[in-house]
Write a structure and sequence with these properties.
Blueprint: E1 2-4, H1 16-24, E2 29-36, E3 42-44, H2 65-69, E4 85-86, E5 89-90, H3 96-105, E6 111-116, H4 125-136, E7 150-154, H5 157-166, E8 172-176, H6 179-183, H7 186-190, E9 194-197, H8 199-204, H9 207-214, E10 218-221, H10 227-236, E11 240-243, H11 246-255
Parallel strand pairs: 1-2, 1-11, 2-6, 6-7, 7-8, 8-9, 9-10, 10-11
Antiparallel strand pairs: 2-3, 4-5
Helix pairs in contact: 1-3
């Protein structure tokens, strides 16, 4: 079970508060989206703009780390309060460095699923910076894909290929919403070790699980919140499910 942007139903997405709660609730992995600031820092923000999830406005790629750090990322959430120590805990800007450190310092092994966003103004620089960061933490060259603590994902086949070429043992997920795209030859061409359909796509094409397995790939499904979808993914053999509500999903999986 992978906490999608942290425990993002109960806490503001992509904040330390959200990930800390997800880890407390037993997440086996955590997922984040990363973008580059104008001065080259990797930050955990989903949208191109900060308007939806912060007290400010503007493009992430046109703002410096310092400018982004002045904003609050929690007040927009139901029950949130202005300030980095509001009702949820730390809801300031989260850097990828800080998230990786949190995961590695946790009391049990947890995987971190890093999604690089495209198209972006910085192009392939995003993957280069992600790999540089993973090298600093000793995660870029795992002993084997199965033992890796980090996974890199993208909807961009070119991005997946860049990671695979530079770090052959690092697991990668090709994300998508099209069954033909994910079940065809693209994943093989770019060397993806897993495919990542949405729950809607998987509902329509459950055969993707067996197709992936036949090619030696795992399947990562997003975003699985409804109880009936959790049961469906478990029953057809999905390896990883991303969810906004880790505690409830974990309890459902254990009950099954």
């Amino acid at each position: 079970m992978v906490a999608h942007r942290g425990a993002s139903i109960d806490r503001p997405e992509h904040t330390l508060a959200a990930y800390d709660l997800a880890l407390q609730e037993g997440a086996d992995g955590v997922e984040c989206d990363v973008r580059l600031t104008s001065d080259g820092h990797l930050v955990c923000v989903h949208d191109r703009r900060v308007d939806r999830t912060s007290s400010g406005a503007g493009l992430v790629s046109e703002m410096t780390l310092s400018e982004l750090q002045r904003l609050d990322y929690g007040a927009w959430h139901p029950g949130g309060q202005p300030g980095s120590l509001g009702g949820f805990g730390d809801t300031g800007l989260l850097t990828l460095d800080a998230l990786v450190a949190l995961v590695l310092d946790w009391r049990r092994p947890v995987k971190i699923f890093i999604e690089t966003k495209h198209p972006v103004r910085f192009g392939s620089m995003v993957e280069r910076e992600v790999l540089a960061l993973l090298h600093r933490f000793g995660l870029a060259a795992p002993a084997s894909a199965s033992r890796s603590r980090a996974v890199v994902m993208s909807f961009s086949a070119a991005a997946v290929w860049r990671i695979r070429r530079a770090a052959p043992l690092l697991p990668t997920v090709l994300l998508g919403t099209g069954a033909r795209y994910l079940g065809g030859g693209t994943a093989t061409t770019v060397g993806a070790t897993a495919i990542g359909p949405s729950i809607e796509t998987l509902r329509e094409h459950p055969e993707l699980v067996d197709q992936a397995a036949a090619r030696g790939r795992a399947l990562y499904c997003w975003t699985v919140d409804r109880s009936e979808d959790v049961d469906f993914c478990r029953d057809i053999g999905v390896a990883w499910i991303a969810t906004n509500q880790p505690a409830r999903t974990k309890a459902r999986l254990r009950a099954g």
